[in-house]
Amino acid sequence: MVKKIKSDISVHIGNLDLKNPVMVASGTFGYAEEFKGLMDLKKLGAIVTKTITLKPRPGNLPPRTCETPSGMLNSIGLENPGIDRFIKEKLPFLNKLGIPVIVSIAAEDDPAEFSVLTNQLDKISGVCAIELNISCPNMQKDKLISQDAKETFDLVSTVRKLTNKCLITKLSPNVTSISEIALAAQEAGSNAVALINTLTGMSIDIYKRAPRIGSWVGGLSGPAIRPVAVRMVWEAYNKIKIPIIGMGGIMDTESALEFIIAGATAVSVGTANFINPKASLEIISGLRQYMADNNIVNLSSITGRLKVCKD
Amino acid sequence: MKTLQIKVKIISNKKLKNDYWHLEFESGLIAAKASAGKFLELKVNKGTDPLLRRPISIHGVSGGRIKLIYEVVGKGTQCLSERRPGEFLDVIGPLGNGFNPPRGRRRSGGQSIIVAGGMGVAPLVFLAAQLKPDKPLVLLGARTKEELLCQQEFKALGCKLMIATDNGSLGFKGRVTDLLKEILSRDFKADKPANIYACGPQPMLKAVSLICRENNIASQLSLERHMACGFGACLGCVVSTKTGYKRVCKEGPVFSGEELMW
After folding, report:
1. Which of the residues A65, A76, A136, A205 would you substitute to probe the B interface, choosing the one with the greatest number of B C-beta atoms within 10 Å?
2. Suppose A34 and one of A180, A251, A298, B233 were both cysteines; which one would form an S-S bond, judging by CB atoms 3.0 to 4.6 Å apart?
């Protein structure tokens, strides 16, 4: 007879308790309401909102998306209603779901906007954690905060002083050493890092001899970037102690497990939400099945436990 | 309201002519929610290349049967054309805001005109079926006679049909929008049409909207844009309107010609 074991897939990230390690990634899930009716939102480990800025942002010039081999480019440009309307119009629905709400924030012009946003969100009990999006590639900036260890350290340190809420720092893969930046976020007091944001990319319509998205260059996501993301999670895992939320082309249970085995405490489903809105829920049950099949009681017992590669 | 994501069995998937295909599947659930101008998001393959679903408008409903027509233009529609009867398709929909023809008492006495360009004919046959008691006038345009679609279907619905081909191989020689201009100045001088409905390539829709503005006629235009999700989450498919960017998949695909910025 097969021995039945009860698998525990709950995880902790800073002071945040998640009933399961599967979240949905910022920018791919709107403010959850868009998915109402397509899936049971209450089953998610957590929801990360589309990034909020201080003022409303109209976003970038269309066309904003195009498909690439096993991936897609986007240049939405952080279209969002701004913090005030987010709190008034979007947060009440999110809070009704009874699952942790992680609010992603970004600055448009001045890094000080992160402080203003954090002060405002810190007062709201329905906000469980704040994700610092210092890695959006679609803001027409020459350099991102997360492309410099010192700037990352300074920004996170500043925000850290303003809140006791769980702070997650989302990092860009467009760097030479991801572990160096992840370490800077940890030293500055971040409770976790989210790896990875999109890779910058470009696609050209050869008949029009024009770029296929309005801002010429955009962020590449989807299964095409998964090996890069897994490698970065593994590199960061070897350098830092704080939890890693792994993401980049997670489509199913197998791809989620790659990230967990590479060292991710939790995972975020991104682009897959567009194609299969139920992908995250399928991964939650798939993880339970994998653990039962392999006699794993705690997910933490496989997190970062890579064995040596044998021929 | 619950949005449907279901697996449907393909009944037929046949080439009509050139690169145009006709696909049918059975789904009472989708049929019950379908209306002209709404669309479906189809997963055309099993793997990740192509990655995204393909938005295809609903061409018709009979009983519980859904009809689609599509043009093979790239990797996604090529995959769709390779799917065989008996296979299952993962479908999300019906999605978006479709055409909004006046109903019941609101139905005005004026004539409705449908302007269809190329593949844009797909949702307009469904619309003509919904407008049937009003017997809409249909202006059907294509590059050549060979590329004209759905002539018989419009005739079967009792619509008056006028053809425009770019090369003059059938009907009016020139663009369907030139034909629209001509009939507006010739046949509708005294009695303005109540509504103009259009779907087709972007330059055609722009021309229809400008002609309608000049003549002070209400227009409803169905737009096409590249979509990543199709249900309002990615904000990829936006168009400029008088009140800012709007999502073609959610607030559209049908917009009033007055609100669009060209």
Report:
1. A65
2. B233
Q: B217 touching A, CB under 8 A?
A: no
CB atoms < 10 A from the CB of A5, how many?
11
Residue of A65, A223, A278 with shortest CB distance to B234: A65
CA gap A84, A90 in Å, rounded = 10
| Interface confidence (ipTM) of the complex | 0.95
Q: Is residue A88 part of a domain?
A: yes
Please, are residues A193 and A178 in contact by the beta-carbon 8 Å criterion?
no
Q: Look at residue A5 in the predicted model and tell me its pLDDT.
A: 66
Q: How far apart are CA B251 and CA A268, in angstroms?
A: 28
Would the pLDDT of A113 be above 80?
yes
Query: Cβ–Cβ of A70/B237 closer than 8 Å?
Result: no
- The third-level CATH classification (topology) of the domain covering B104-256 is Rossmann fold (3.40.50)
How many domains is chain A partitioned into structurally? 1
Q: Which part of chain B is CATH 3.40.50.80?
A: 104-256
- Checking if the pLDDT of A303 tops 90, the result is yes
A214 inside 8 A of chain B by CB: no
Which positions ≥6 away from A138 have C-beta within 8 Å?
A60, A74, A75, A76, A77, A78, A215, A218, A219
